[in-house]
Write a structure and sequence with these properties.
The protein is an alpha+beta fold. It is built from 4 helices and 13 strands. A 9-stranded antiparallel beta sheet has the order 1-8-9-10-11-7-6-5-13, sandwiched between helices. A 4-stranded mixed beta sheet has the order 2-12-4-3.
């Protein structure tokens, strides 16, 4: 389904107050002596993308598609890509990479900030020790969000799993499998720490989004024409506006 996986899928509670560098902290993907047994990988470890490798190429990250998953794209008003989500039956998974210093520790700082922010929003927060270190779980009236992160060579990758509280455990397993086979493409450009690495869409998704926009524009024109002609039923049988959700690449 995803290629190599982490051998450790369980999680245990951790002390949020533990300082940086304490045992049980985050794995630094750039310092494993014999190389990591599982990802996320730096692009230098796996090379350029190949046809049929099974990962969705988003420029700064290449992520495996869960079985039966779909791709949901959020766009800025400017037309640039805000984020790309992998939608599953249990919820959605979002992977993003950020510029980081050469020394590890950024994820732990981010995890602490996420915990504080979730508590400020009145969520029930649990910090656990997962395969790569700290995972932050927030549960509120609107559902659950689990944050995973890994420090790599000049990058930090974050995975967010969000969905109903009833499926958050199953979604967490899928999220770890996705993160374990994700490739991060940092590039050589100097960037401020915590800058989000740019996301680009593969050509097939661009074509699908363009088709959805054209269909939505056609629908809007038909609705306007129906209103002008006074047809009360003209808009009731037309297709709904596309939501930017597309199947995963085959």
């Amino acid at each position: 389904m995803f290629g190599r996986r982490s051998k450790k899928n369980g999680v245990t509670p951790v002390d949020e107050r533990a300082p940086l560098g304490d045992p049980g902290g985050e794995r630094d993907a750039s310092t494993d002596e014999d190389g990591p047994e599982t990802g996320p990988w730096d692009s230098s470890e796996v090379g350029p993308p190949t046809e049929g490798e099974g990962r969705l190429d988003l420029g700064s990250v290449r992520v495996p598609m869960p079985e039966g998953g779909q791709v949901q794209v959020e766009m800025e008003t400017s037309g640039s890509v805000r984020s790309v989500h992998l939608v599953t039956a249990d919820g959605r998974i979002t992977v993003a990479a950020f510029a980081a210093p050469r020394s590890p520790g950024q994820w732990r700082e981010v995890a602490a900030e996420l915990s504080q922010g979730l508590r400020a929003d009145q969520a029930q927060v649990t910090v656990e020790d997962g395969p790569w270190g700290r995972e932050v779980l927030g549960i509120g009236p609107g559902g659950a969000m689990r944050f995973l992160g890994v420090d790599g060579p000049r990058w930090m990758v974050r995975c967010v799993a969000s969905g109903p509280a009833s499926t958050v455990a199953a979604l967490a397993v899928t999220a770890r499998e996705v993160l374990a086979d994700t490739v991060v493409v940092r590039g050589d450009e100097p960037l401020p720490v915590r800058t989000t690495l740019p996301v680009t869409l593969p050509a097939v998704l661009v074509q699908q989004l363009d088709a959805a926009r054209a269909q939505a524009a056609e629908q809007a024109a038909m609705s306007a024409a129906d209103q002008q002609t006074g047809d009360p039923d003209g808009g009731s049988s037309a297709m709904q506006q596309a939501e930017g959700v597309a199947p995963g690449p085959q």
